[in-house]
Amino acid sequence: MFRCGNYFPSPNLAPRRPISYPRPPLPERLVKVIGSISAARRHLRSVNRPIVLVPTMGALHQGHAALLDRARSLAGPQGTVVASIFVNPTQFGPKEDFSRYPRPFAADGRLCAAHGVDVIFHPTGSRMYPDGFSTFAEESVVSSRLCGASRPGHFRGVCTVVLKLFQIVQPQAAVFGLKDFQQCAVIGRMVRDLNLPVRIVAVETVRELDGLALSSRNQFLTAEERRQAPILRAALLAARDAWKGGESSAARLRRLIVQRVGRAPLARIDYVEIADDHTLQPLRQAGDQTVIALAVFFGKTRLIDNIRLR
Amino acid sequence: MFRCGNYFPSPNLAPRRPISYPRPPLPERLVKVIGSISAARRHLRSVNRPIVLVPTMGALHQGHAALLDRARSLAGPQGTVVASIFVNPTQFGPKEDFSRYPRPFAADGRLCAAHGVDVIFHPTGSRMYPDGFSTFAEESVVSSRLCGASRPGHFRGVCTVVLKLFQIVQPQAAVFGLKDFQQCAVIGRMVRDLNLPVRIVAVETVRELDGLALSSRNQFLTAEERRQAPILRAALLAARDAWKGGESSAARLRRLIVQRVGRAPLARIDYVEIADDHTLQPLRQAGDQTVIALAVFFGKTRLIDNIRLR
Question: Which of A235, A272, B4, B244 has the smallest number of Cβ neighbours within 10 A?
C-alpha cells in the first residue's frame, strides 16, 4: 500500500484491453499520494493551475483512464490532475456492496501514473466523515427516480462527497463518466444550484468490444453472467433504432427493452426509464432530449447503462 | 435604489445609538454594489485578498456594524470586505415574516460605506433561486432543536444560502453575530463537515443600554413591548448568576428563566433551552460548555437571545 507522502514512478502500463481513446504522450511521471485533508489542501495551494479533478472510487479501468486522459488534456501539460480514490460509504445503502467493493490500490496507482495524474487523494473514511458528521448536500428532483428510487440516499451521499472533494481540491474542472448518466445530471444541477465554481465535464462511456459498459462491478459477474451482460447495450441500441424508425411512445420503447433484456435468462430488471435528459423526469413521448436508462441485476451484481436519443 | 455597478460615496454616518464598539479610522470610501452572481464572481476574482464576507439580510444596525468592523480588521487595510444583503426566502417558514421583513437598502448602503465595506452583493431572489432549484445543504444535529425545532426548514435555508454565498464570494473568512448562537454553531458544523475553506468568526452580541440585543426585528415592537423586551437579557443574567452561585440543575435554571420572563405580561415563551454549546443538545446539568438560549414572542415579533456559562 502507498501511504501519504509516498511517491511511485510510472510503470508506463500498456492498456490491457484493445480499447482506443485519445491518450497524450506522457513522460515517466511521479504521482504524489496524499491521505490527509490538510496535507492535500497545503499541497494543492502550491501547485500549478488549472487543477482538474477526477473523483473515483478506485478499482480503475479503461473507462476511468478515459476520464484521466480528458482531465490531463483539460489541465494542459502545466496544470495539475488530481484523482481522488475513495470508496464513499455514504453512497451505499445498508444492504449494498460497500464492504466487498474492490480496492486494488496498487494497480490503481499504476493506472494513474500511466494516465498523467499528478496527485492521488486517498483519504480514509474517518477523515472524510469525522465523529458527529451531520451535514449533507441533497438534490431532490433529478435524483428522485431511476437509481435514486432504487437506492435511497445514494445521491445524497454522492452530492455530499463530491461537494467535499470540490472544497478540498478546489478544482477548476471535474470529469465524470456518462455511464453514470444520472450522477452527471445530479451533479450538474448541484453545481448550478449551489454556485460551485467548477466546470463539469462528462466523458462518453468506454465499452468492451461486445458493448458492455466498463464498470468496476463487472468483475463480480460469473462467466455466464458476463456472457449475457451485453444484452443491456443491445436492448438500448434496439430502442434507439426503433425511435429513429419513428416509434416515440415511451411505453412501447420500454416494452421493447423489457422484452429484449428478458432474452437473457439471468437478467432481472431493476428499472427501465425513458426520461428527460436534464431533469430525469419520465416522459410519455421520447423526443430529442431524451435518455433511456436502465439497471439490471445479474445475481447480486447490478449493472447500469443508458443511451441518449439525438 | 442602487443598482448593479452603481457606486455611492460614504456619508460618514455618525452612529445613531450611544453604543461603543471598536471602529477603525476610515477614509471616505466607494462601495461597489453588485446584483449579478457572474458580475460578483468576475469582480471578486480581481480584488485584493483576503476577502472577508459578512452575510446579512439587510436592515442593518449597530450589531451588523460590529460585524463589518471585525471584517475590516480581519481583511486588513488592503483586503476586501464584502457584505451580502439578501433577505433569503428559504430560511423563512410559510407563516413567517418574509414579506414584511424590513428592506431599507439606501440606509444599509450608507452604513456599509461608513464601516469599511468594499462590495455589497445584493442579488435578487430569482438569481439566487432560479427555476427548478432543487439542491439544499442540511445539517441535522446542531440544527435539530431550539430555533430548528420552532422553525422547521429554517437552518436548511440558512446553510444553503451561506454555502452559496461562500461559493460565489470565495472568502477566506466570514463573520457572524453571536446573537444567533445556534446559527453560528450550525454553520461551524457545516464548515467542518463539508471542508469549506472559510474561517468562521463569531462576534459578541451588541445590546441597547437596557440589555436588549440589537435585532432588525426590534422595530416591530410596540412601545410597551419594547419596554418589556429587556426581560430576555435580565432572565439570562439571573440564570447565569444562579449558576455561578452553584445551581447546576438545568431544570431549575430553566424554571428560574420561565418565572422571570413571566413577569413581562406581553411575553410568550417559545423555548428556553440549556444545551451543550457545540452540539446544542439539551443538558441535565449546566457545566462550563453550556449555552442557555431562549426565544420569546411579543405579539407577532419573535426575539431570541442567549448566554454562555463559562
Answer: B244
Out of A135, A164, A193, the one facing B134 most closely (by C-beta) is A193
Separation of alpha carbons A167 and A37, rounded Å: 10
Residue B283 belongs to domain with CATH number:
3.30.1300.10
Contacts of A137 in chain B (CB under 8 A): 135-138, 163, 194
Closest CA to A215 of A108, A297, A157, A302: A302
A158 and A260: one domain?
no
Number of domains forming the structure of chain B: 2
Task: Give B192's contacts in chain A (Cβ within 8 Å).
Answer: 130
Domain boundary among A173, A203, A233: A203
Tens-digit pLDDT profile for residues A8-57:
333 333 333 433 444 444 445 689 999 999 999 999 999 999 999 999 99
CA–CA separation, B189 and A44 (whole Å): 24
* Identity of the residue in A142, A164, A190 whose CB atom sits nearest the CB atom of B194: A164
- CB distance from A160 to chain B under 8 Å? yes
**Measuring CA to CA, which residue among B238, B308, B229 is closest to residue B274?**
B308
CATH number of the structural domain spanning residue A11 = 3.40.50.620
Q: What average pLDDT does range A102-107 have in this prediction?
A: 95
Residues B56 and B196 in one domain: yes
Say yes or no for a CB contact (<8 Å) between B168 and A195. Answer: yes
As averages over each run of 10 residues, the pLDDT of chain B (310 residues) reads 30 36 52 97 96 98 98 97 98 94 95 96 98 98 97 98 98 98 98 98 98 97 98 98 98 98 98 97 96 97 96
- For β-strands A301-309 and A290-298, DSSP reports them as antiparallel
Q: Are residues A45 and A135 in the same domain?
A: yes
Q: Is B73 left (phi over 0), alpha (psi -120 to 50) or beta?
A: alpha
Among A176, A203, A230, identify where a domain stops: A203
A84 interface with B at CB cutoff 8 Å: no
Per-residue model confidence as pLDDT tens digits over B258-305: 999 999 999 999 999 999 999 999 999 999 999 999 999 999 999 999
**Structural domain harbouring A141:** 7-203
For the record, the C-alpha cell of B28 comes out as 471616505
Q: Does A134 sit within 8 Å of B135, measured CB to CB?
A: no
Complex ipTM value: 0.90
Q: By the CB < 8 Å criterion, does B7 face chain A?
A: no
Q: Is B122 a catalytic residue?
A: no
